[in-house]
């Protein structure tokens, strides 16, 4: 069973940056990967995805601020988040796309002054 471990979250002021990491137990070669987030009281949403040839797609509200990247071996996915806004506050998760693996614990991102 694939295990996902997210890290890198924290408390940051508006305009700040964070880099999230996700390690996958095994290679992700040939697999589309993505970052998702869930804010309190809201449904989980897709934030960014990356294909096997590193083509990317982003949620409109994060375009130009977030960058997704990947390493296939060992499996890892990253999310560079710049110019953070309070509305980016959420628990962030990685998973394959479309998500079929068991969710990890996520990493909390809080943007507040």
Keywords:
four-stranded antiparallel beta sheet; mainly beta; six-stranded mixed beta sheet
Topology:
Layout: E1 4-7, E2 10-12, E3 18-24, E4 33-38, E5 45-50, E6 56-58, E7 66-71, E8 76-81, E9 90-96, E10 107-111
Parallel strand pairs: 2-10
Antiparallel strand pairs: 1-3, 3-8, 4-5, 4-9, 5-6, 7-8, 9-10
Radius of gyration: 13 Å
Compute the separation of the termini in Å: 40 Å
Shape label: globular
What is the number of helical segments per DSSP (H or I, 4+ residues)? 0
The level of helicity is under 10%
Helix/strand order, N-terminal first: EEEEEEEEEE
Task: Describe it.
This protein is mostly beta strands and 113 residues long. The chain is built from no helices and 10 strands. Strands 2-10-9-4-5-6 form a 6-stranded mixed β-sheet, with no helix packed on it. It has a 4-stranded antiparallel β-sheet with strand order 1-3-8-7, with no helix packed on it. The radius of gyration is 13 Å and the shape is globular. The relative contact order is 0.33. The model has no long low-confidence stretch (mean pLDDT 96).
